[in-house]
Design brief:
The complex is a heterodimer of chains A (443) and B (69).
Chain A (H helix, E strand, L loop, with lengths): L1 E2 L1 H12 L3 H20 L2 E5 L3 E5 L5 E5 L1 H7 L9 E4 L8 H6 L2 H40 L1 H7 L16 H22 L7 H11 L8 H25 L3 H22 L1 H6 L2 H26 L1 H4 L2 H14 L14 E2 L15 H4 L14 E8 L2 H13 L4 E8 L2 E11 L2 H8 L4 H4 L3 E4 L2
Parallel strand pairs in A: 2-6
Antiparallel strand pairs in A: 2-3, 3-4, 7-9, 7-10, 8-9
Helix pairs in contact in A: 1-2, 5-12, 6-8, 6-9, 7-9, 7-10, 9-10
Chain B lengths: L2 H16 L3 E4 L3 E8 L2 E4 L5 E4 L2 E8 L8
Antiparallel strand pairs in B: 1-2, 2-5, 3-4
Classes of the chains: A alpha+beta (443), B alpha+beta (69).
Chain lengths: 443, 69
């Protein structure tokens, strides 16, 4: 059926009780305002109805408000796309996710976030561990990088205690031990040359090119490599006189050994700043991890209140969109403040308490939906049915509708902000009603 | 503009459109309800989704653009 302007005006006259001319005037004014606002590049919003605006082609467009949309689409409200075939695994799922229901998306996101929160800590610890491992492995391999680097180093200060750190001490002692052994073996009169190649061979096994600590270590490992070099040179020079070189080396070794021996303790206190920072960070992480574990163990009850909060949020999400849908509409043009005042202010903040299936009828909730259980032609019968339902504890509403010229009295229960909620509740009704009901707007 | 008029205007349009009637206002535009049958949507990644049927509200403008009179 088509309603033209004349019929519309008639209907409006009937509804408002105003004069026909006045209604025509008002309608004209409304259209003019919509045009004006739209031509100024603004959108005109009629609350709970929709939004008028000009699109980029200068065509007037109308975006119905969500509640209006739902009302028109009432028959199919609550139906959602059903996935028949999942996406192939190889392709990206981004476009799909945008199509998904927003509520589910939110929950999954929040779950992911939670996982991330905990995962982050784990990762941190892991990283820390890895760092530590790297540290350790590096400290084992320190001999080699120094070997490469010793060109840059000043040969004058082999025993620089300032640069010496913990791993360096190990190296020193390790290195120092070896030279001593060789020195001793030399003293014992054994041929040194066989020993030397072995020593020079050590760097090969450990020559890892990517050593981030090269610079730091270079100072440390300087002395053994220097010593080696010196030894080698001396040996080469000494040639036939190994005894001399041995003695000099032995002297040196003795010195160097005494040096690190004494100095190895003070450097421990000094330590390298990086090592210190690492140690602090490591202990901090361990303490934090411990703290989390302890709080987790002790606060198992507090953890449980969290999920309800999430569900509450979800409920809120479900409940909110319906009452204030006009706000959600965002046209590309600037939205002019709703010029048209709404004469029926809606009680958005008290939705949860106002709406419901049982109890007594709340007038503020009459802008919502209800579940019709009986539709009777006789008012008395309707009253009786309503009484019966009221006795069972339901919020019972009788609405009067004219269908094809006949007046029917619809006995309905509950007041709900959205069709969806009404449908959910309708599915929970006892048997005779569960399959014989329909949802309608209360007003 | 009268607020009772606005309210009545909204109510009348809602009622009429809920009954699937179309409402035409000369010199302004026409509100219609278009039924869209259930359909299948295939994504490039092989995902197939059945979209539910829907009654969609449409507004055809008689002002602005090519329709200007």
């Amino acid at each position: 059926m088509k309603i033209n302007k004349a019929q519309l005006i008639e209907l409006l006259v009937e509804k408002t009780g105003m004069e026909k001319q006045e209604v025509e005037q008002q309608l004209k004014e409304l259209i003019k305002r919509i045009k004006d606002a739209a031509s100024r590049g603004k959108a005109l919003e009629i609350k709970n109805f929709g939004l008028f605006y000009f699109d980029s082609d200068k065509n007037l467009r109308f975006d119905p408000a969500d509640s209006f949309r739902t009302e028109v689409n009432f028959k199919y409200a609550g139906m959602e796309p059903v996935e028949v075939k999942p996406p192939r695994k190889t392709t990206s799922e981004q476009e799909d996710s945008s199509e998904e229901m927003p509520i589910d998306k939110k929950t999954t996101e929040s779950e992911e976030e939670e996982e991330d929160v905990f995962g982050f800590d784990d990762d941190d610890i892991d990283e820390e561990k890895e760092k530590k491992e790297i540290e350790e492995t590096e400290s084992d391999e320190k001999v080699s990088p120094a070997f490469k680097l010793d060109d840059e180093l000043e040969p004058e200060k082999p025993d620089d205690p300032a640069k010496a750190d913990k791993p360096a001490e190990e190296d020193k002692s390790a290195e120092a031990d070896k030279p001593e052994e060789t020195a001793e073996s030399k003293r014992a009169g054994e041929p040194e040359k066989t020993d030397k190649p072995e020593k020079t061979g050590i760097p090969e096994e450990a020559d890892k090119p990517e050593d981030p600590f090269k610079d730091l270590l270079s100072g440390i490992s300087l002395e053994p490599s220097e010593q080696k070099r010196e030894e080698e040179e001396e040996i080469k020079k000494a040639g036939t006189r190994p005894a001399v070189s041995v003695s000099t080396q032995a002297g040196k070794k003795g010195q160097s050994k005494k040096g690190p021996g004494k100095k190895s303790k003070p450097p421990q206190k000094k330590k390298d700043p990086i090592m210190l920072v690492l140690a602090v960070v490591l202990t901090f992480v361990v303490v934090m991890a411990g703290f989390f574990i302890i709080t987790d163990m002790t606060q198992t009850p507090p953890q449980e209140p969290d999920p309800p909060a999430v569900t509450e949020q979800r409920d809120a999400v479900v409940a909110e969109p319906e009452p204030e849908p006009a706000d959600a509409v965002e046209p590309d043009t600037e939205t002019e403040q709703p010029i048209v005042e709404d004469t029926e202010p809606e009680p958005e903040p008290v939705i949860e308490t106002v709406y419901g299936l049982t109890g007594t009828v709340v007038n503020e909730a009459n802008d919502g939906f209800t579940i019709v259980l009986h539709s009777l032609r006789n008012n008395n019968n309707a009253q009786a049915a309503a009484e019966n339902l009221r006795d069972q504890g339901y919020r019972t509403i009788i609405t009067e509708r004219t269908i094809d010229g006949d007046t029917v009295y619809r006995v309905a229960v509950g007041q709900f902000p959205t069709v969806r909620e009404a449908q959910d509740k309708a599915a929970e009704l006892p048997e005779p009603y569960r399959n014989q009901n329909f949802i309608q707007r209360i007003q | 503009m009268n607020s009772t008029f606005i309210k009545a205007f909204k109510d009348v349009l809602r009622e009429q459109l809920a009954k699937k009637n179309s409402v035409e206002i000369d010199g302004f535009g026409r509100f219609t309800v278009v039924h869209q049958g259930q359909s299948q949507k295939k994504y490039e990644n092989g995902r197939v989704v059945i979209l539910p049927p829907a009654d969609i509200l449409e507004f055809k403008s008689q002002i602005g653009g090519s329709d200007e009179d």
